[in-house]
């Protein structure tokens, strides 16, 4: 099995390479701005947004494209296309959403007049064709953009000497990212390596089902008759706090707005990784060999293909959460432990009783409560959905709810464990987490 790991590295010869890295960081910002302007023009004229292949075809001869190695320029355009796609999905339900901003910082005099404009240093990504790695001496050669080569046949590379933390071996280098740390005022490298690891045996033969949603980001039901809930309170708080703070900034593409966007993204990433890690740890503890995850295809659209309206806050929550990204993270972390992850259809899982199999949409009487009139049981609605996903009720050859027996225990369906996200310790039992503002 192959896995990718990213290692942070300190640049040892920073004073020799910082100017070249600065130039490439500025070039990445300029290319972003050119592509951003082009995308906005296409949107205004056609009502559509260009994808990354359109941007690459349109801008590959542009002078700003030549400020970076071709693969590095392609990555900038891919990131912009991803940002526009995210905005396009969000604007369907939130007309306050703004398209991706320009990467620039404006400076003003004491009268409020703009004196000059400066581009920030953007992250630059080099893929394999732009990298030459000297593993013996801890050095990497990064190809310069054509605009930054002083001579046609010389100075074609930025030779960077790096140092990672003790015990890290950098091999099979796939990607190098040069990231500028504004607080430290220096560059660092993120080295993406591919490793081959032996796939371990599954922890056991038990199974789990994961239901992803709005109020509770994840509900997990185990075949061991245990269940856990993971509320998305932290994501909600960040989703309300950061947009308000960003809106206060004078320049949506300025340094402060960029800092807030970065912090917001880092906290969201930390939440998703912490959640996946905690679920996998619980699966190992309970001998789970397979996790079924609800496939969220169509979660943002109704039966007519229109964007679902979950209410003002619901829309902000739903479109701000990367469900697909979380599933990918969970799959990766589970795979390392020998646990399989399978996406299964979510159809009818929220309105079917996981105990008797009776289907009735009215049985979900309110958010969080599911009552089955057939056997007069009440339990947590999200856990009910997670258990149906575990049973994979939409498969003809799956284990049916009713086949488990009429004497099936139901107490655990009503009393799941609840875990909240602690910024320093990851997910902890609710009683141990003290809430705090961003």
From TrEMBL:
The keyword Thylakoid does not apply. Residues 190-299 form the Probable transposase IS891/IS1136/IS1341 domain. InterPro entries: Cas12f1-like_TNB (IPR010095), RNA-guided_DNA_endo/Transpos (IPR051399), Transposase (IPR001959). GO terms for molecular function: DNA binding; endonuclease activity. GO terms for biological process: DNA recombination; transposition. Keywords: DNA recombination, DNA-binding, Endonuclease, Hydrolase, Nuclease, Transposition. This is RNA-guided endonuclease InsQ/TnpB family protein. It comes from Halorubrum yunnanense. The lineage of its organism: Archaea, Methanobacteriati, Methanobacteriota, Stenosarchaea group, Halobacteria.
């Amino acid at each position: 099995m192959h896995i990718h790991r990213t290692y942070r590295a300190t640049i040892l010869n920073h004073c020799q390479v910082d100017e070249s890295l600065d130039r490439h960081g500025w070039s990445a910002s300029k290319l972003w701005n050119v592509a951003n302007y082009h995308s906005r023009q296409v949107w205004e004229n056609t009502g559509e947004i260009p994808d990354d292949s359109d941007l690459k075809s349109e801008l590959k001869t542009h002078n700003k494209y030549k400020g970076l190695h071709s693969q590095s320029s392609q990555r900038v355009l891919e990131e912009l296309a991803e940002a526009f796609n995210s905005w396009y999905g969000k604007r369907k339900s939130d007309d306050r959403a703004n398209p991706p901003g320009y990467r620039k910082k404006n400076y003003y005099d004491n009268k409020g007049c703009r004196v000059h404009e400066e581009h920030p240093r953007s992250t630059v990504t080099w893929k394999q064709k732009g990298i030459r790695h000297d593993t013996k001496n801890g050095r990497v050669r990064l190809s310069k953009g054509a605009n930054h080569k002083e001579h046609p046949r010389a100075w074609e590379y930025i030779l960077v000497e790096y140092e990672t933390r003790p015990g890290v071996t950098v091999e099979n280098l796939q990607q190098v990212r040069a990231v500028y740390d504004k607080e430290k005022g220096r560059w660092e490298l993120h080295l993406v390596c591919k490793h081959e690891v032996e796939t371990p045996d599954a922890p056991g033969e038990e199974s789990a089902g994961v239901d992803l949603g709005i109020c509770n980001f994840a509900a997990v039901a185990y075949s061991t008759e245990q269940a856990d809930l993971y509320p998305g309170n932290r994501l909600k708080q960040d989703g309300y706090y950061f947009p308000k703070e960003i809106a206060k900034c004078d320049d949506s593409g300025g340094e402060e707005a960029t800092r807030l966007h970065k912090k917001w993204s880092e906290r969201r990433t930390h939440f998703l990784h912490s959640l996946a890690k905690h679920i996998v740890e619980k699966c190992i503890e309970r001998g789970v060999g397979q996790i079924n995850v609800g496939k969220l295809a169509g979660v943002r659209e109704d039966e007519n293909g229109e964007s679902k309206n979950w209410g003002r806050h619901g829309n902000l929550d739903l479109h701000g959460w990367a469900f697909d990204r979380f599933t990918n993270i969970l799959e990766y972390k589970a795979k390392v432990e020998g646990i399989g992850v399978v996406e299964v259809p979510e159809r009818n899982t929220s309105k079917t009783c996981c105990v008797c199999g009776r289907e009735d949409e009215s049985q979900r009487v309110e958010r969080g409560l599911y009552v089955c009139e057939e056997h007069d049981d009440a339990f947590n609605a999200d856990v009910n959905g997670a258990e149906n996903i575990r049973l994979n009720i939409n498969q003809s050859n799956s284990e049916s709810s009713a086949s488990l027996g009429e004497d099936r225990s139901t107490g655990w369906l009503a009393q799941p464990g609840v875990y909240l996200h602690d910024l320093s310790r990851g997910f902890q039992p609710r009683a141990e987490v003290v809430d705090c503002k961003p």
